[in-house]
Design goal:
This protein is α/β, with parallel strands linked by helices and 304 residues long. It is built from 11 helices and 10 strands. The strands form 2 sheets. A 6-stranded mixed beta sheet has the order 6-7-8-3-9-10, sandwiched between helices. Strand 7 (198-202), helix 7 and strand 8 (230-234) form a beta-alpha-beta unit. The longest helix has 18 residues, at 210-227.
Length: 304
């Protein structure tokens, strides 16, 4: 079952920051001849491996509708972050196709790929703030590098983004002066600075206390809907993710093994999904690493 997107939520019309940004940057204006599809991101039968003998992804297919928040879940090493890298064009699939906003990422030139990336935002696992810049300067960096906006307008936009994450009062603080949750929120303000059409979140809840986690989850939902953004969230945090997202893909061993809405996931009888959601120690993902029979190991040790 594939959740259909609401194309009407995909536009950024009426957003003050986006409108000003496009006015000063005509290269970002949408092509009037391009009719958007219902899905912003499509991963079609993609296989990838750094080594042909060791595949990380094995024929996965995902559809990310415009304006929605979709989670990718699964155990460590199952290929979640690799999927984000393929969508961002950092990696190219061995087989299959990745399409973003109707464009095949594999076929883009370097200049075209950079242009596409300017429409994306990325929240890294631990924020990745520039340590020698203040919170204000971290958010302003995007505008100064990618636009020709006057300084007074950059200031207004930066303060607006920091205010959106509740940290306008922390504008002059250095990253070392911020708590983990505050740093993550500054990084979120930086990632949405240019009003991206697509947001990628790599483990946005890792290391956060319950209050900071709840604030971050609420911001992801609120900002996604306010900006008309499409979001992909890679996370292990089941309970908070299911309360946040519109659709979930479960991955295991480089494959999509289950998918559905949060309600379908909670009620699923699929063994892998049930084990993951209920945090059961044994199941399709075994507790014991494969090895020979325990009794044989003991007897072999005694005979040595």
């Amino acid at each position: 079952m594939i959740l259909q997107g609401d194309a009407g939520r995909s536009g950024n019309s009426g957003n003050f920051g986006a409108g000003l940004f496009r006015r000063y940057n005509p290269r970002f204006a949408p092509d009037p001849l391009l009719v958007p599809s219902a899905n912003l991101v499509e991963v079609d039968n993609v296989t990838f491996g750094y080594d042909p003998k060791r595949l990380i992804l094995r024929g996965i297919s995902l559809s990310i509708p415009r304006g929605r928040i979709v989670a990718i879940m699964g155990g460590s090493g199952c290929g979640k972050t690799t999927t984000l890298r393929l969508i961002g064009g950092e990696l190219r699939p061995s087989k299959g196709e990745v399409r973003v906003d109707g464009q095949s990422v594999r076929g883009l030139s370097t200049a075209e790929l950079y242009a596409l990336r300017r429409k994306m935002g990325m929240l890294f696992q631990f924020g990745a703030l520039f340590t020698d810049m203040t919170a204000y300067e971290n958010v302003a960096f995007q505008f100064k590098e990618q636009t020709r906006l006057p300084e007074v307008l950059i200031r207004h936009l930066v303060l607006m983004k920091l205010n959106a994450v509740g940290l306008r009062g922390a504008a002059d603080l250095m990253p070392s002066e911020l708590s983990g949750g505050m740093a993550r929120r500054v990084a979120l303000a930086r990632s949405i600075a240019l009003d991206p059409m697509l947001m990628l979140y790599d483990e946005p809840f890792t290391g956060l206390d319950p209050i900071s986690l709840g604030v971050t989850a609420q911001l992801i939902r609120t900002l996604n809907d306010a900006l008309g953004t499409t979001s992909i969230v890679v996370t292990h945090n089941v309970l908070d993710a299911l309360a946040l997202v519109d659709y979930v893909y479960f991955m295991s061993d480089g494959k999509v093994v289950a998918e559905g809405t949060p309600d379908q996931v909670r009620d699923s009888a699929e063994p892998f999904v049930r084990q993951f959601v209920k945090a059961e120690p044994d199941g399709p993902v075994p507790f014991h690493y494969p090895g020979q029979d325990y009794r044989s190991d003991l007897f072999a040790a005694a005979a040595a």
